[in-house]
Amino acid sequence: MAEPLLSVKALEGWYGESHVLHGVDLEVRSGELVTVVGRNGAGKTTTMKSIMGMVRPRTGSVRFNGVETIAMPSYRIARLGIAFCPEERGIFATLDVAENLVLPPKVRDGGLTTQQVFDLFPNLKERLRSQGTKLSGGEQQMLAIGRILRTGARLLLLDEPTEGLAPVIVQQIGNSIRKLKAEGFTILLVEQNLRFAGTVADRHYVMERGRIVDEIPNAALQGSMEKVNQYLGV
């Protein structure tokens, strides 16, 4: 089989003296949508940030498209074609939607045009001159995702994209993510909402105390809910 687009092996990560990741192993193949689920504090967001080189020190192996990135700074990792959409969204409050949207640099060909972003998220076109502070939580999330789509990144890391959003907005975000997958984007998604995760993902990794403790194909998710709920403490 072809090498995975993203391969993470024995990844260890620290925040200062706090040892947070304890040998994380996961992989994502080109065109897949894979989720990482787990309790708060399990290490999901730290795994995302470690893949991006935002957690130091880190050890182990992170290979993207066959290139080892463990020693690279974040800006070089981004230029390889990985984009990170953080849970806090990172919208610049003093910039309007149009300015926020064009802020990240293009890293490679193949990114969405501004019009394609508007086709995906029509709300953004209606709020084009609104400042970041004037947007709803759902609109901020759409802008945060739309912004990274313009960069040309092949792999999207989405951290809790449905957190705190109304059900109707969650449905819109889900429809957009499914469209992106259909267009060939590869996505690694951290998600607490298992019902939502089951509507978009191919596979699910379960994380506990800084380790991947299980892998569940989406087709087996419903039959594994008792086990998953035990992991999540539900």
Write the layout of secondary structure elements.
Blueprint: E1 6-15, E2 18-28, E3 33-38, H1 44-51, E4 58-64, E5 67-68, H2 74-81, E6 82-85, H3 97-102, H4 114-120, H5 122-126, H6 137-149, E7 155-159, H7 167-182, E8 186-190, H8 194-200, E9 203-208, E10 211-217, H9 225-232
Parallel strand pairs: 3-8, 3-9, 6-7, 7-8
Antiparallel strand pairs: 1-2, 1-4, 4-5, 9-10
Key traits:
Rossmann fold; six-stranded mixed β-sheet; four-stranded antiparallel β-sheet; 9 helices; 33% helix
Order of helices and strands: EEEHEEHEHHHHEHEHEEH
Computed structural class: alpha/beta
| CATH fold type | Rossmann fold
Oligomer: single chain
Proportion of residues in helical segments: 25-40%
Per CATH, the architecture is 3-Layer(aba) Sandwich
List unreliable stretches of 5+ residues: none
- Tell me the name of the CATH class: Alpha Beta
Overall 3D geometry?
globular
Radius of gyration: 17 Å
How many domains? The number is 1
Report the biggest beta sheet as strand number plus sense, adding barrel if it closes.
6 strands, mixed
Mean pLDDT: 94
In whole angstroms, the N-to-C terminal distance is 37 Å
Report strand order across the widest sheet.
6-7-8-3-9-10
